[in-house]
Amino acid sequence: QVQLVESGGGLVQAGGSLRLSCAASGRTFSRNAMGWFRQAPGKEREFVAGIGWNGISTYYADSVKGRFTISRDNAKNTMYLQMNSLKPEDTAVYYCAADANSGGAYFVSALRSQYEYWGQGTQVTVSS
Fold first, then answer.
1. What is the full DSSP assignment across 16-53?
2. CB-based contacts of 90: which residues, under 8 Å, 6+ apart?
3. How far apart are the C-alpha atoms of 45 and 95, rounded to whole Å?
4. Distance (Å, rounded) from C-alpha 121 to C-alpha 128?
5. What is the dihedral of CA 50, 53, 57, 61, to 10 degrees?
6. What distance in Å separates the CA atoms of residue 108 and residue 124, rounded to the nearest whole number?
7. What is the mean pLDDT of the chain?
8. Which of 20, 27, 71, 83 has its CA 20 to 30 A from that of 14?
9. Are 17 and 86 in contact (CB under 8 A)?
10. How far is the C-alpha of 111 from the C-alpha of 16, rounded, in Å?
């Protein structure tokens, strides 16, 4: 059974930092694009950041560019999201996602429909 499990969420003051992890099990995603999405109360799930399987190609939503950094360790089948300079508007449930299909090393997608596997989410709350 394929599972993606997020961890590292919590409550932090504005300006603080958190590091999210997404551990995959049941299959390897070392040749698959992965990404982070988030969903705030009353809003649709939105793209945050994506990374190609080579770990070099990355893509960010404008709202987090320069503050968040996505990375991955294929040997550990794990993806990370380093979040700095957090703002109250970053408050949301954060989900990791993985593409079931193996694409090019530099392939990254911001589309929810591209990702077939999803974690259960981890809550990030930023207080003002």
1. --EEEEEEEESS--TTS-EEEEEE-TTS--EEEEEE-T
2. 38, 64, 83, 124, 126
3. 9
4. 23
5. 0
6. 24
7. 96
8. 71
9. yes
10. 28
- Neighbouring C-beta atoms of residue 85, cutoff 10 Å: 13
Q: Give 37's contacts (C-beta < 8 A, 6+ positions apart).
A: 45, 46, 47, 48, 94, 95, 96, 97, 112
Average pLDDT estimate for 17-34: 96
Q: Which of 76, 51, 46 minimizes the C-alpha distance to 63?
A: 46
| Spatial distance between the Cα atoms of 92 and 116, rounded to a whole number of angstroms | 21
Q: What is the pLDDT of residues 53-85, one digit of tens each?
A: 999 999 999 999 999 999 999 999 999 999 999
**Is the CB of residue 88 less than 8 Å from the CB of residue 14?**
yes
pLDDT at 103 over 90: no
